[in-house]
UniProtKB/TrEMBL annotation:
Belongs to the short-chain dehydrogenases/reductases (SDR) family. The keyword Nucleus does not apply. Pfam families: adh_short_C2 (PF13561). This is SDR family oxidoreductase.
Length: 243
């Protein structure tokens, strides 16, 4: 199996989960991991280079699972950058999963395998400061549903819609420990996801237990976000807070 962007953060959590389940995992990214992951092969690849992506998959003897995890975006209000900069965000988060999926298609069809897209709650709600990223993730979820129809019955395609995840880069998005804890308190389960939570969900979607699941979006967000109007309203506060 292949995990794109599988060297740190959510990607590393996914890689560890599949390795623990006994899979032969190939992680690909533009940079090698700072600490090699046990039992995982690493391949250097710029996923924005379609010929390089095709070459990577052509060299594989077999492929059962592709996890399109590579992506991300810095905080950047729309008016603070030109269209070309925002287009690069869309390329990384939408076009590179398409490129990898197309390159992997023949392998996956022979193995009757599956694709797992790593989506985001940013694609299902307003995402101020990461609008291009949110738009790309919305497109990714739709792409997965269309792909699931076009490539059935040989290949299953699903999306994990992921909420905030605590990784080694969380400080870039949420600030210090106080900020991270405050964000966690906005989530009904009381904390951000760990990379292992996303990895476990990805393993499930790739497993025989999900053999009849395709074109689906599985929410991995700890219950979502508490509606802001509940905190602003001046009635029913005690009931809303469970007292």
């Amino acid at each position: 199996m292949v995990v794109t962007g599988g060297t740190r953060g959510v990607g590393a959590g996914i890689v560890r989960a599949f390795a623990a389940a006994g899979a032969h995992v190939v992680a690909c990214a533009r940079r090698p991991p700072e600490t090699p992951l046990p039992g995982v092969d690493f391949t250097l690849c710029d996923l924005r280079d379609p010929p390089a992506v095709r070459a990577l998959f052509d060299e594989l003897p077999r492929l059962d699972v592709l996890v399109n995890n590579a992506g991300g975006a810095p905080y950047r209000p729309l008016a603070d950058a030109d269209a070309e900069r925002h287009a690069k965000v869309i390329e990384l988060n939408l076009l590179t999963p398409l490129t990898a999926s197309l390159a992997a298609r023949a392998h996956l069809a022979r193995a009757r395998g599956c694709v797992v897209m790593i989506g985001s709650v940013s694609g299902t709600r307003p995402s101020p400061g990461t609008a291009a990223y949110g738009a790309a993730k919305a497109g990714l979820e739709n792409l997965a549903r269309s792909m699931a129809v076009e490539w059935a019955p040989d290949i299953r395609v699903n999306t994990l819609v992921v909420g905030p995840v605590r990784t080694e880069l969380s400080h870039l998005h949420y600030g210090d420990e106080e900020g991270i804890a405050a964000v966690g308190r906005t989530i009904p389960l009381g904390r951000m996801a760990a990379p292992a939570d996303v990895g476990a969900a990805a393993v499930f979607l790739a497993s025989d237990a999900a053999a009849y699941i395709s074109g689906a979006s599985l929410l991995v967000h700890g219950g979502g976000e508490r509606p802001a109007f509940l905190a602003a309203a001046t009635v029913n506060k005690e009931k809303a807070e469970g007292r």
